[in-house]
């Protein structure tokens, strides 16, 4: 029988069926971090049980860590306590922990792939909604709550209902200056912030195939922003090449055996999806968001919709009021106060190389506060090896140490009330980057150009 | 987990769509390592000014509205997977959230904590908002056993869907771990067959 890629992986992980259509799904790999795991470990202790398969969980500190002076004890008391608690729990339960300063430390969705822990065909979970990032390798990866983190720690399984399947195909050639981030912001603007709810998405088409592994990660990362449980892309030679030779990837004969299986992971030609969308790559421009959810995006040269053109005027008006923007206006030319380049969406080496290429020999606008936060220690080391940190500093950017940082404003990296921030992160919710902060989501290239010009510019013109 | 019982209560309306989990509980309040006390920061930035004084125009600060049922616009709970959102709502005193559409992860987190998500049609949601607008003390009845939600004054009622397994868990106060732990042999057999 013809199957989708999603069903091939799902079916291979069903341990048992429960009455009413719920299934017991085996989880190959769990990632944990300091914010959504302490109550799960406390739950195990209360029940007096151990972590069932400690070698299948890896921990990192990323959400609630400073991005300066990581060699010193964390200043903020609650953050220090939370990070120390993770270290303690990992020690007690025998889980590998990559704490601050460890050469494997970094944002959980950056380190999984770069260490070769993420491999095609796996089921992967983490108490973080952007776990869908790992779908770029042809995995079923999704975010879970803390009760479920505890379930996986206790049993390596989860109770799940099989979601519906959606395929989004993007065919054609991207124009210059259009990045993976623009593709996904474009898709979400078409489907809305709830258009994918109840579905698992497969991204397909020549424009997706053409993307590097890092570009594919950016696409899958934001699947949750349209409500989807996750997104995945069929693995191919690019995927296998990326995985090969990484620290925890299978080696030699074991790799070849795995690869033979990975090559079977694709959607059969006549497999059926519950929903399909097709978009031409040529229609995609650099994107920016204007509202308070990631579905509120427009082409950089476009206008914010008019009040009469939206379905939910109350919510729309509340959003624009928060953003200090007017219906029908353009964002092009708008003066910006902050630029944040980082997050599990766009903090990998390719993102930072693009930014470095653009800002080389230039200076940021005087009034802009510009910050770059690498996704991991490995990314940071690579940046330093290539001398990109020097380029950033000369251009007036603040280059920090790894972490989630201003993407969610848990640490001190916040955007002040009322200030506009062009951000390469994934969410523009009210207060996401700090109380009252106004976030405009964009690609690393748009963010770099904005920092230099001090206002939102069409990066395609600047590239010419 | 507490057992879920039949509920008769007034409701608190938030007629806003896309209420994300960053609004329900902002990230800067996620530093605790226990499940307690999150209710104090529920809807923190809608509820309090930056000097911690209450915002008078926010519904939770209006004594006219109270109850264990929260009614909100579509796509409630979108965004982050933080279970703290469900903990905050429950800790504040809500037992039921009604919307025309829930984000997946939030729905699961709510069910795992004894907080019942009740999904109704857009039209019925509108009727609930109207009923509260006409009479803030309007009572509603949530009957999980019968899977019905009723506007007491008019008798207008709708049924709602819930997974039969999760329904059994809520009614009995069971959680998923108890069940999964009972499957140890099946899990081992699965691992052996894969190896």
From TrEMBL, chain A:
- The EC number(s) given in the record are 4.2.1.33
Question: PROSITE patterns annotated for this entry?
Answer: ACONITASE_1 (PS00450)
Q: Which GO terms describe its biological process?
A: L-leucine biosynthetic process
Give the keywords, sorted. Answer: 4Fe-4S, Amino-acid biosynthesis, Branched-chain amino acid biosynthesis, Iron, Iron-sulfur, Leucine biosynthesis, Lyase, Metal-binding
The record's section on Pfam families has: Aconitase
Question: Which pathway or pathways does this protein act in?
Answer: Amino-acid biosynthesis; L-leucine biosynthesis; L-leucine from 3-methyl-2-oxobutanoate: step 2/4
Q: Extract the InterPro entries matched here.
A: 3-IsopropMal_deHydase_lsu, Acnase/IPM_dHydase_lsu_aba_1/3, Acoase/IPM_deHydtase_lsu_aba, Aconitase_4Fe-4S_BS, Aconitase_4Fe-4S_dom, IPM_dehydratase_rel_enz, IPMI_cat
Q: Which HAMAP family does the UniProt entry name for this protein?
A: LeuC_type1
Q: What is this protein called?
A: 3-isopropylmalate dehydratase large subunit
According to its UniProt entry, this protein's organism is Flavilitoribacter nigricans (strain ATCC 23147 / DSM 23189 / NBRC 102662 / NCIMB 1420 / SS-2) (Lewinella nigricans)
Question: Which function does this protein serve?
Answer: Catalyzes the isomerization between 2-isopropylmalate and 3-isopropylmalate, via the formation of 2-isopropylmaleate.
**Source organism superkingdom:** Bacteria
**Annotated gene:** leuC
Domain Aconitase/3-isopropylmalate dehydratase large subunit alpha/beta/alpha, residue spans: 7-454
Which PANTHER family does the UniProt record give?
3-ISOPROPYLMALATE DEHYDRATASE (PTHR43822:SF9), HOMOACONITASE, MITOCHONDRIAL-RELATED (PTHR43822)
GO molecular function list: 3-isopropylmalate dehydratase activity; 4 iron, 4 sulfur cluster binding; metal ion binding
Q: Which residues form a coiled coil?
A: none
Q: What class of enzyme is it?
A: lyase
Q: Which reaction does it catalyse?
A: (2R,3S)-3-isopropylmalate = (2S)-2-isopropylmalate
The UniProt record gives the binding positions of [4Fe-4S] cluster as 344, 404, 407
Protein family (similarity comment)? Belongs to the aconitase/IPM isomerase family. LeuC type 1 subfamily.
Organism placement in taxonomy:
Bacteria, Pseudomonadati, Bacteroidota, Saprospiria, Saprospirales
Cofactor: how bound: Binds 1 [4Fe-4S] cluster per subunit.
Automatic annotation (TrEMBL), chain B:
**What keyword terms does UniProt attach to this protein?**
Amino-acid biosynthesis, Branched-chain amino acid biosynthesis, Leucine biosynthesis, Lyase
Q: Which Gene3D superfamilies match?
A: Aconitase, domain 4
Asked whether the UniProt record includes Lyase among its keywords, one would answer yes
Kindly indicate whether the keyword Isomerase belongs to this entry: no
Question: By its UniProt entry, which InterPro entries does this protein fall under?
Answer: 3-IsopropMal_deHydase_ssu, Aconitase/3IPM_dehydase_swvl, AconitaseA/IPMdHydase_ssu_swvl, IPMI_Swivel, LeuD
What biological-process terms (Gene Ontology) are attached?
A: L-leucine biosynthetic process
Q: Where does it sit, as one GO cellular component term?
A: 3-isopropylmalate dehydratase complex
Its top-level enzyme class, in one word, is lyase
EC assignment: the record states 4.2.1.33
* Short name of one Pfam family: Aconitase_C
MF terms in GO: 3-isopropylmalate dehydratase activity
Q: Which residues form the Aconitase A/isopropylmalate dehydratase small subunit swivel domain?
A: 1-122
The protein's annotated catalytic reaction(s) are: (2R,3S)-3-isopropylmalate = (2S)-2-isopropylmalate
Pathway where this protein functions: Amino-acid biosynthesis; L-leucine biosynthesis; L-leucine from 3-methyl-2-oxobutanoate: step 2/4
Q: Which HAMAP family match?
A: LeuD_type1
Q: What does this protein do?
A: Catalyzes the isomerization between 2-isopropylmalate and 3-isopropylmalate, via the formation of 2-isopropylmaleate.
Please state which protein family the record places this protein in: Belongs to the LeuD family. LeuD type 1 subfamily.
Assembly, per entry: Heterodimer of LeuC and LeuD.
This one is known as 3-isopropylmalate dehydratase small subunit
Q: Which organism's genome codes for this protein?
A: Flavilitoribacter nigricans (strain ATCC 23147 / DSM 23189 / NBRC 102662 / NCIMB 1420 / SS-2) (Lewinella nigricans)
């Amino acid at each position: 029988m013809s199957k989708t890629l999603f069903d091939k992986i799902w079916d291979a992980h069903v341990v048992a069926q429960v009455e009413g259509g719920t299934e017991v799904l085996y989880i190959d790999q769990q990632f944990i971090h300091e914010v959504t795991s302490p109550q799960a470990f406390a739950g195990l202790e209360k029940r007096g049980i151990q972590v069932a398969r400690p070698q299948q969980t890896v921990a990192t500190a990323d959400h609630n860590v400073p991005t300066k002076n990581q060699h010193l004890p964390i200043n903020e008391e609650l953050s220090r306590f939370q990070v120390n608690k993770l270290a303690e729990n990992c020690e007690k339960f025998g889980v590998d922990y990559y704490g601050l300063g460890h050469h494997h430390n970094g944002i959980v969705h950056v380190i999984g792939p770069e260490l070769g822990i993420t491999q095609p065909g796996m089921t992967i979970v983490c108490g973080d909604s952007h776990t869908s990032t790992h779908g770029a390798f042809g995995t079923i990866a999704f975010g879970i709550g803390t009760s479920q983190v505890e379930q996986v720690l206790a049993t390596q399984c989860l109770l799940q209902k099989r979601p519906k399947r959606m395929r989004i195909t993007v065919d054609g050639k991207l124009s210059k200056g259009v990045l993976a981030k623009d593709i996904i912001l474009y898709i979400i603007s078409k489907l809305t912030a709830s258009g994918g709810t109840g579905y698992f998405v497969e991204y397909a088409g020549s424009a997706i195939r053409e993307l590097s592994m890092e570009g594919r990660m950016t696409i899958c990362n934001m699947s949750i922003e349209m409500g989807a449980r996750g997104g995945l892309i069929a693995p191919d030679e690019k995927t296998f090449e990326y995985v090969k030779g990484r620290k925890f990837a299978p080696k030699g004969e074991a790799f070849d055996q795995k690869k033979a299986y990975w090559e079977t992971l694709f959607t059969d030609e006549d497999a059926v999806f519950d929903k399909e969308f097709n978009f031409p790559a040529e229609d995609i421009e650099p994107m920016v968001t204007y509202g308070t959810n990631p579905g509120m995006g427009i082409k950089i040269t476009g206008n914010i919709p008019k009040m009469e053109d939206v379905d939910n005027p109350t919510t729309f008006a509340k959003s624009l009021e928060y953003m200090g923007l007017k219906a029908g206006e353009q964002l092009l030319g708008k003066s910006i106060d902050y630029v944040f380049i980082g997050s599990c969406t766009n903090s990998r080496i390719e993102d930072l190389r693009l930014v470095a290429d653009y800002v080389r020999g230039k200076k940021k606008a005087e009034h802009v506060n510009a910050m770059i936060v690498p996704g991991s220690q490995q990314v940071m080391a690579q940046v330093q090896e290539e001398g990109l940190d020097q380029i950033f500093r000369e251009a007036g950017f603040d280059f920090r140490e790894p972490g989630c940082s201003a993407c969610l404003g848990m640490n001190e990296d916040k955007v002040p009330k009322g200030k506009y921030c062009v951000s390469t992160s994934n969410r523009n919710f009210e207060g996401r980057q700090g109380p009252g902060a106004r976030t405009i989501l964009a690609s690393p290239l748009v963010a770099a150009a904005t920092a230099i010009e001090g206002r939102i510019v069409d990066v395609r013109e600047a590239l010419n | 987990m507490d057992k879920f019982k039949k509920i008769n209560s007034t409701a608190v309306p938030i007629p806003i769509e896309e209420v994300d989990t960053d609004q329900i509980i902002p990230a800067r309040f996620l530093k605790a390592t226990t499940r307690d006390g999150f209710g104090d920061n529920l809807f923190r930035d809608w509820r309090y000014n930056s000097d911690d004084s209450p915002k008078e125009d926010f519904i939770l600060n209006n004594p006219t509205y109270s109850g264990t049922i929260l009614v909100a616009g579509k796509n409630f709970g979108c965004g982050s997977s933080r279970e703290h959102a469900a903990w905050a709502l429950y800790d504040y005193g809500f037992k039921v959230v009604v919307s025309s559409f829930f984000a997946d992860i939030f729905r699961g987190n709510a069910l795992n904590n004894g907080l019942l998500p009740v999904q109704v049609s857009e039209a019925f949601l509108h009727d609930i908002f109207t009923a509260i607008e006409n009479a803030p003390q309007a009572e509603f009845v949530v009957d999980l056993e019968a899977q019905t939600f009723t506007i007491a004054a008019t008798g207008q009622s709708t049924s709602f869907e819930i997974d039969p397994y999760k329904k059994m868990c809520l009614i009995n106060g069971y959680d998923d771990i108890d069940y999964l732990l009972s499957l140890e042999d099946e899990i081992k057999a699965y691992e052996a067959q894969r190896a």
